[in-house]
Backbone:
């Protein structure tokens, strides 16, 4: 199975700053079938990005995804207070679908 | 509005069984495959199982294969997960999840989850 490694584990930033989250795959992700989710305590995960760079419905354009092959990036251009959360990447190009360990974006 | 509501979680002893349910609304349930995903508290997400729209295709994570059984009842807009021979490492918050497209394993709607605790 494809192992996804997210870095950093924790990102300490201030509102208005730019956040850059990394997701590295142990092997190439087929067709860039990679997604990003936002997860807040007590809430269901929220799909942000799929097929590496397509924004899901109602996701603000400050969220963007890029990458291919084994290296993918989620960028939040200017952090809003509601963006502080844990972010997971997930590949769905190979079975079984797998998730990264998460990056926590916390308020500095 | 899409809603997924899980139930059936609880505290159970190792080796015992539990059946989770998920009731869906706000979309045409029979048009979509459905999935279960779990999260150990404080840890990451793990895909557990998949069932096609007509139950013809089913798949499981290796960690639960042979112990868990997924099923669905399209007439009741319901998804199930029968969990047998439970182990402490099965303790987690179990989510049912709807895929963005039926053929994709990327999830645009999730329930709030039902907590399973396996402990003596």
Residues:
């Amino acid at each position: 199975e494809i192992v996804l490694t997210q870095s950093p584990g924790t990102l300490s930033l201030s509102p208005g700053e730019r956040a850059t989250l990394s997701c590295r795959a142990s092997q190439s992700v087929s067709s860039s079938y990679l997604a990003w989710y936002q997860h807040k305590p007590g809430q269901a995960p929220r799909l942000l990005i799929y097929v590496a760079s397509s924004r899901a419905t109602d996701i603000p354009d400050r969220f963007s995804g890029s990458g291919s092959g084994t290296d993918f990036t989620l960028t939040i251009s200017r952090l809003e207070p509601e963006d502080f959360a844990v972010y997971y990447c997930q590949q769905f190009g190979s079975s079984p679908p797998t998730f990264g360990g998460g990056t926590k974006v916390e308020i500095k | 509005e899409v809603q997924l509501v899980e139930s059936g979680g609880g505290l159970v002893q190792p080796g015992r069984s539990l059946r989770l349910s998920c009731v869906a609304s706000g979309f045409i349930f029979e048009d979509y495959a459905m999935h279960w995903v779990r999260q150990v508290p404080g840890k990451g997400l793990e895909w557990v199982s998949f069932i096609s729209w007509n139950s013809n295709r089913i798949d499981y994570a290796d960690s639960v294969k042979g112990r868990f059984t997924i099923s669905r009842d399209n007439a009741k807009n319901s998804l199930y997960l029968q969990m047998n021979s439970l182990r402490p490492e099965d303790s987690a918050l179990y989510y049912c999840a709807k895929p963005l497209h039926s053929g994709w394993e990327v999830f645009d709607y999730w329930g709030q989850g039902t907590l399973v605790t396996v402990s003596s």
Remarks:
- The mean pLDDT of chain A is 95.
- The two ends of chain A are 35 Å apart (CA to CA).
- The first strand of chain A starts at residue 4 and ends at 7.
